[in-house]
Amino acid sequence: MGTILKEGGLRLVKDLRTQGQKVVLAFGVFDLLRVGHTRYLREAKGLGDILVLALASDDSIQRTLGPGRPLLPLEDRIGILAAFEMVDFVTSYSEDDVVPFLNALKPDVLACQGDAPQVLGGFPGKVVLLGHSGDEEAEQLIQVILKKYSDPNTKINE
Asked: What is the pTM of this model?
């Protein structure tokens, strides 16, 4: 079960790194969890000793994906993902991309979803591409849910 990092929590992760622990950073939105997310996190954990998961803030998601997202607020997403056994630490970033957080943490490995933007600004560590983010899959699933449950005859407990 992961620890939720609050302000100053990055110091703890940096201390673990200086003690020889290999730190891996995974990041994303994670507002509609799918099996691809669990595969991504398991593979990311396999790249090192400590897995830090950084979630995009609600404001950041709204700016990049639109006003209907995220589906779950940040606090809920953090609570759910902190319960995953492969996640050691979970935190968030408020910028529109992960680069400032990446530069602050300086992980040994950056585990990217294969279609993540590659604007990493000279990151000196190892970058590993793992699968794809499934953003199109998430959008399709949202559309199916909206269509199905916009019908007043559809019962939620079906």
From this structure: 0.84
